[in-house]
Amino acid sequence: MCTKFLQELSYDPPDRDTDTYLKHLNGLWLESPVTFLHCCHEARMRKICLLPPPNEKHICVIQAKLALHDVVALTYYLEHFDQTVVCPESLLIQDCGLTDEALAVLGKKLWRLKKVQLTGCVFTHKGLAELTRKMTDHDLKNLEILDLSDCQLDDEALIRIMPVFGHLQELYISDNSFTWYGIRKLASVHRRTKHLAKLDMSRCQLSEHGFFELIPIILKTEHVILQGNPISPIELKIFSRQIRDAKKLTLKTLDISSSNLNDSCLHQISKFVFFIENVDLHNSNFGQEGLQMLVKCCEKLGVKQLKTLNLRMCKVRYLDQWRNSKE
User: Fold this and answer.
1) CB-based contacts of 321, cutoff 8 Å, min separation 6
2) Potential cystine with 179: which of 69, 207, 300, 323 (Cβ 3.0-4.6 Å)?
3) Residues 215, 263: one domain?
4) Helix and strand element counts for the chain (H, E)
5) What's the Cα-to-Cα distance from 62 to each of 66, 117, 160, rounded to whole Å?
6) Average pLDDT for residues 234-247, to the nearest whole number?
7) What is the pLDDT of residue 217?
8) Cα–Cα distance measured from residue 54 to residue 51, given in angstroms and rounded to the nearest whole number
């Protein structure tokens, strides 16, 4: 009897009118993408032809505590949306308390979108390892942008996302904590992959030699953001030499602002800054000696590729005096 009863509960008749069911619940989901996802899941829609509110090809859930059953509903939608009718481009889940358990539920369905943003979460290397363990190139054919900022990632977690790295155009992993060890592992993979369009590793507490290990990746990336990371003059010296020796430079924009840069750093930066189109050094600790070196290099080398140089919140009075003297 119990078996027959369960079979009756799970029976999904072929003439079940899911459209009528969803129309009845339409008023419930207009303001909430989570409610919409639950409606699709409860209706057991096989081909979902609707986008979540506000219907802009983006699934956005921000600052809403997501329980595991909410993630199940999201996974169901990612598995069953009809690509011939609707094609959501991105998933944004921000500050919703996702953990490794949520990653286990999402699985490969997560990679059906072009852009995946899971920020303000708590992931470990175990959860990421399970997520990427059996991935194939086919699974990642759609993914272009991955954002795992502020997810408490460490070196082991960084190593676990290496299988995804070679398929990305943009990677955002700011506000995590990495050392030279994890970055070296990532750089070893990047040498064999295509160029990145953008990399953001701001405020990652890069330890000593972290920037040095990152240099191979920086040179093969168009736009690099490293705000708030300590960078030593010796690392900048090595970077400067490699910039000047590069036959074809991919790097076009470099942001190393708010990194406690001083005159010794600017002395090295002056040797390569004119080979990059856009450089952001704002909120640094530059004095007259460093700025004099910058001006001398400018007079000697010319501006070359440099288009913009951001020196806001720096001591630029000497530059004003130099400009006035030229006039």
Assistant:
1) none
2) 207
3) yes
4) 15, 10
5) 10, 11, 26
6) 92
7) 92
8) 8
Residues 212 and 277 in one domain: yes
Q: Could you tell me what percentage of the chain is helix, strand and coil, using 3-state DSSP and rounding each to the nearest 5?
A: 45, 15, 45
% residues pLDDT > 70 (the chain): 85
pLDDT the model gives residue 11 = 45
- What is d(CA 168, CA 270) in angstroms, rounded to the nearest whole number? 32
* Residue 219 belongs to some domain of the structure: yes
When pLDDT is averaged across residues 177-197 and rounded to a whole number, the result is 84
Say if CB 108 and CB 130 are below 8 A apart. no
Q: What is the pLDDT of residues 128-170, one digit of tens each?
A: 998 888 778 788 888 999 999 999 999 999 999 988 888 899 9
Q: How is residue 11 written in tokens?
A: 């029976």
The half-sphere exposure of 194 on its side-chain side, counting CA atoms within 13 A, is: 11
Together in a domain, 266 and 280: yes
3-state SS, residue 261: coil
Task: Report the number of distinct structural domains present in the chain.
Answer: 2
Range of the domain at 22: 18-57+66-88
pLDDT tops 50 at residue 51: yes
Longest dimension (CA), the chain: 97
Assess whether 189 and 322 both reside in one domain.
yes
> Phi/psi class of residue 128: alpha, beta or left (left: φ > 0; alpha: ψ in -120 to 50)?
alpha
CB-CB neighbours of 92 under 10 Å? 16
DSSP state of 52: P
Residue 301 and residue 180 share a domain: yes
Taking Cα atoms as reference points, which of 221, 275, 230 lies closest to residue 256? 230
Give the 3-state secondary structure of residue 62: strand
Catalogue the E-assigned strands of 132-225: 145-147, 170-172, 196-200, 221-225
Could you report the per-residue pLDDT of 56-109, keeping only the tens digit for each?
A: 888 999 888 899 999 999 999 999 998 888 889 999 999 999 999 999 999 888
User: Do both 73 and 164 map to the same domain?
Assistant: no
